[in-house]
Amino acid sequence: MSASTDEQREFTDTGALRLALRAEHAAVYGYAFIGAHCADARRDRAYAHFDAHRAQRDALRSLLVEHGAEPDAAEPSYGLPGSTDDADLDAFARDMEERTAQGYLELAAASDPVLRDLAARSLQAATVRGLQWGGTLTPFPGYRADRSPDADTADTADTADTEE
């Protein structure tokens, strides 16, 4: 259930973990796609980022179980870029890292200091990965005034090919 733009949803550590997990599910899916359509060093980078996101996804799943919550399963599919040229794949990777950073930014407000530490380290890692795909450093990585943290992680309106 998603809050409307006029409503505030109640913040919980578990809810923030779920948000970060959804972003990680989408990133694992997206990097598998990118890796399959890149060559050489770009492919190596995509698969290294795939492995990093897979490890994060698994850690978040474990943390949710420790908090007594059932981890959400991945969606059957997520939005993908409309083409596989290098520029579109780079933009897609940057957007995934921004969405991942956004999920961890919310987790930084957790009451549990272990979760706050995880959020800070993960936000930093997502920011560095985004820079490796040609992103720019912003004053507040992960903060996007134009997109709610509840935004569907599958929504890649800037790069997705939504019509077949």
UniProtKB/TrEMBL annotation:
Q: Do you know which InterPro entries this protein is assigned to?
A: DUF4439, Ferritin-like, Ferritin-like_SF
Instruction: List where Acidic residues composition bias occurs.
Output: 152-164
Pfam families annotated for this entry? DUF4439 (PF14530)
Boundaries of every DUF4439 domain copy: 16-144
Q: At the top level of its lineage, which domain of life is listed?
A: Bacteria
List the residue ranges of the region (Disordered).
63-90, 135-164
Q: What is this protein called?
A: DUF4439 domain-containing protein
